[in-house]
Each structure stands twice: as structure tokens, then as C-alpha cells.
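Morning!

This is the sequence you dropped in the shared folder:
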Amino acid sequence: MIEIKNLTKTFDKLTAIDNLSLDIYDGSVLGLVGSNGSGKSTLLRTLAGVYTPDSGEIKISGVNILENSFIKGECFFIPDFPFFYNNSTINNSAFLYRRIYPNWSEDEFKRLCQIFPIDPKAKIINMSKGMQRQASLILALSTCPKYLFLDEIFDGLDPVMRFALKKILIENVSKRDMSVIIASHNLRELEDLCDCVCLLHLGKLVVQRDIDSLRTEYRKVQIAFSQPPLENDLFKNINVVNVWRNGNIFNLTIKGTEEDFMPKLNALNPAYISAMPLTLEEIFISEMGESGYDIGNIIQ
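The structure's back. C-alpha cells below.
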């Protein structure tokens, strides 16, 4: 289990992480999402021990991670721009990792080299962005980490490799109770992979929920009327997050259950009404809008 308590990290006058508290359970996949500059990458780097917190603490398996080589040996972090030396290959990098990571698996290394179509003798620095990602994944997963931290890992991967990666991650979580934290702007990739999502904005935690319960909390509703409604505040008794109107048709984003809001909408005598769950991307836009980060404030 990862326990983050009152974590703060600043850079000069910028507060990247602001008094953040968060628990991440073993065997779970957490999607870390948020606005640009929300602190996602800083949080991953702090979890990996790259950054030292200014205040607060991080415990992994009940132990403070600072200067703890055993715990760090059970973690692996792939940053958004993986670093390799000019002469690094998968083979010579594996030679080093075998001696650093106590859980290194030679069988897993050979299996992953067959899955990802990369020459293990080729210089990684000469590879494409997507192939560098694949090289990083081969090395990371071969260490059999207990905790895997991934920053924009889907960026540069083609659809086949994205599917393969998700399948491999799910296998590792199931077989070894591995915990995965993925920071990504690609919410559609996270939607069918993560158990839970954590939304950050300006270094603060906006919401942490399991995806299934988050989906049931919002609905997008299309409602149409035979005649234009005369009331200006038509939906005043309903928790409407967003409204877009086109003539007699209203498209609503509503926070709440259908059992709660559908009787109120039906009482308005609409000609047509339909409710559907939101995608994770739509939920993100709605939650960020409630935090003051929406398109209406950006484009005026």
C-alpha cells in the first residue's frame, strides 16, 4: 500500500503539490489525471524518490521511501521522456538492471523481448519515440516491480502496442498483486484499464473515486420540447453542471442518479428525453468545470 500524507512539493515560488493526501491499495490500477501543470509528473517523481518532499511523507509498504534502497528496488518509474545513454541497448541495460533489482526475471525479459518487436542490440537513442517507450517497458516489467509508475506511457504507442501493454499490465496486477499508477491525458485509454481515478488541479486533489461509481454519478441528458419553454430557470431544482441549447433541444450534464432527476424532468412534459452515462473524458471536463477550469473561462 502507498500512503501519501500532507505532501507538499515546491519549485521556487511554484507549488506543484499542495498538501496532498492519498492512499493507493495493492493490486490496483490508478489513473492520475488533471490539467496541465496539475502536479501529476511531480507526484510520480516524488513517489519514485527522484524529488524530496518539502513537507509531508510517503510510505510504501509501511516504510518511508527516502533513502530506502529495498523499497526502491520494488518500484520502477518510466518518465514521460525516458532517459538512455548514447550507447544504451536493451541488452546492456538489462545487464545493469539484473544487478540492481532483486526481483529481476530472466524468463519475463525473454518473453517481453518476443512480444515487443525491438532489436535488443540496437541503440535505444536511435529508435522512434514509441519504440523507446517499448524498450522502457521491457526493462521495467522484467524487474517484476511491486509498484509501477508510468508517465504518459501510451504516448507514441500504436494501437496494437497499446492493447498489448494494457493486457500485460492487467496480467501482472492479477498474478503478482502489482500496483500501477498511470499519469495520462489519454483518458480513453485509462477508462477500460483503471480501477480508480485521481483528479488533480493546481497541485490539489479534486476527486478520488473508483471509475464505476464515478460513472454512475453523472449523466448526459438530451431533452426536447414541442414548444420553446418560457421559463429562464427551467432546471433550477436539478443539479445541472452544464447546459447547451439548440432551439427546443437541451443537452444537459447532470450530477446525480436517474432516480432523482428523471421525475423532475418528466414533470416538465418534454416531447423527448434520453439519459446516458458520461465517458471518463466528459466527467473530467465536468469536474474541472466545477473547479473553475472550463472552456468558458479560457475562451471568451
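Headline: Confidence is low (pLDDT under 50) at residues 295-300.

More detail when I'm at my desk.
O.
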